[in-house]
Specification:
The chain is α+β, with helices and mostly antiparallel strands. The chain is built from 16 helices and 5 strands. The protein has 3 domains: 13-214, no CATH class; 227-302; 310-427, Heat Shock Protein 90. It is 67% helix and 8% strand. A 5-stranded mixed sheet has the order 1-2-3-5-4, with helices on one face. It is elongated.
Length: 430
């Protein structure tokens, strides 16, 4: 079994700025690929500049102003598509998740146009597409040029071999000390190029987050609304849990205690011989042990003592050991998270494994609990029949509410025929 740890990526990070490292080359490709998407809005202006170079300065200025207005109009008409494209690009290439803005109804109507003109989100997005994105494209072109010129200058002697003897590059490449200076300049540009592309990529993410995503006030408003919904879900879940406890106590432990009291009462009244008394005491003893076992299970379901005393690894080991099928457990926690996060992770795994035992028809399961930065990732998978649906009352909806109560997220992937993958992402800033 392969254990995934957060430390596995450290050696790669140490050398990611070397020109020949896969990380640096991949980032250069991402920056180069972002340039066409960043200059979409500026295409009318670029076409005017390219086709009107022979015109007078006043005519060029007027045409440039008209092209700029046309670019703004194009950006407004295509604003949702352009923003969605940039969000998808940043998520795919830089793992930057920008929250989706709520769609504005009737954008092309008079009322919708006025509302969009008053919206700060519209102007922020237009600012990114019309101003920031073209500037980032120019920075990206400069960074990619450093790569290209660095390679050309470093390998200038090889390039010059195929050139005629009168070409300046061939004379320079084989002239002392100009050829050495050219090669050293190329090596310097190659060493600087990864840092330039990394800076452009970081600047892109730094600018895109506030311009394409919600503002701080909108984030707080959305968070308050989400927390209000989460609070309602937690209240419903707590009420359902209370009813379950009442039902378990009434149907289980209370009935056993009633039976125990009746057996002892009958033994007190009817037992006339030592054999009858021993038999009544034995039956009462079994009932008492069964009641204690049910109480232990009930208390373990509320909050297991081992979780508080020894942490998540020991608590989940006990859950996995009680499963009727083999469970591979991997826990990578350099330090313990907050108690409430530990509790949510424990109940997610416990309920997930219980669902596997009841519904999945699986032969084995796997649990991975891993901390990466300030997030705790919990993955529960099995090789069963699949088809798990939170809407069908298998406990997954309750797990989603429990994860949302601490600002986490739950995702279930369970195609018919399996396998089922339950992923929970929880905040873990402690």
């Amino acid at each position: 079994m392969t254990t995934i740890t957060a430390r596995a990526g450290l050696p790669a990070r140490r050398h990611r700025r070397l020109p020949w490292s896969p990380g640096a080359l991949g980032q250069a490709i991402d920056v180069a690929g972002a340039i066409p998407a960043q200059v979409v809005v500026g295409l009318p202006l670029l076409l005017v500049v390219a086709t009107a170079q022979s015109s007078g300065p006043h005519r060029l200025l007027r045409m440039g102003a008209l092209a700029w207005l046309g670019s703004l109009l194009l950006a407004y008409l295509l604003l949702p598509a352009l923003t969605g494209m940039q969000r998808h690009r940043l998520r795919a290439t830089a793992a930057i998740e920008i929250p989706r803005q709520p769609p504005a109804p009737g954008r092309l109507t008079t009322h919708g146009t006025v509302a969009a003109a008053r919206s700060q989100a519209t102007w922020r997005q237009l600012g990114y597409h019309a101003v920031a994105a073209p500037a980032l494209a120019l920075a990206g072109i400069a960074a990619i040029s450093a790569w290209l010129f660095g390679i050309m200058c470093t390998l200038a002697p090889l390039f010059a071999l195929g050139l005629p003897s009168g070409v300046m590059l061939r004379r320079t490449a084989y002239t002392w000390p100009a050829g050495i200076y050219l090669t050293l300049a190329g090596i310097g540009m190659l060493l600087a190029a990864p840092w330039l592309t990394a800076g452009v990529a970081a600047l892109d993410g730094l600018i895109a987050r506030p311009l394409l995503g919600p503002s701080r006030a909108e984030e707080l408003e959305n968070r308050v609304e989400r927390l209000a919904q989460t609070r309602a879900g937690v209240v419903d879940a707590a009420d359902a849990e209370r009813r379950r406890l009442e039902r378990d106590l009434h149907d289980g432990t209370q009935q056993r205690l009633v039976s125990l009291a009746m057996n002892l009462g009958m033994a007190r009244v009817q037992a006339t011989t030592e054999h009858d008394a021993r038999q009544a005491i034995a039956e009462a003893h079994e009932e008492a042990k069964a009641a204690l076992s049910e109480l232990r299970d009930l208390i373990r379901g509320l909050h297991p003592a081992v979780l508080e005393d020894r942490g998540l690894d020991a608590a989940l080991s006990g859950v996995a050991a009680r499963m009727p099928i083999p469970v591979r457990l991997t826990v990578d926690l350099p330090r313990r998270p907050a108690p409430v996060i530990e509790a949510v992770a424990y109940f997610v795994v416990s309920e997930g494994l219980a669902n596997i035992a009841k519904h999945a028809q699986a032969s084995q399961a796997e649990v991975i609990v891993q901390r990466a930065g300030d997030r705790l990732h919990v993955i529960v998978s099995d090789d069963g029949a699949g088809g798990a649906d939170p809407a069908r009352g298998t406990g997954l909806a309750g797990l989603a509410r429990r994860a949302a109560s601490v600002d986490g997220a739950l995702e279930v992937t369970s195609p018919p025929g399996g396998p089922t993958l339950l992923t929970v992402d929880l905040p873990c800033s402690r």
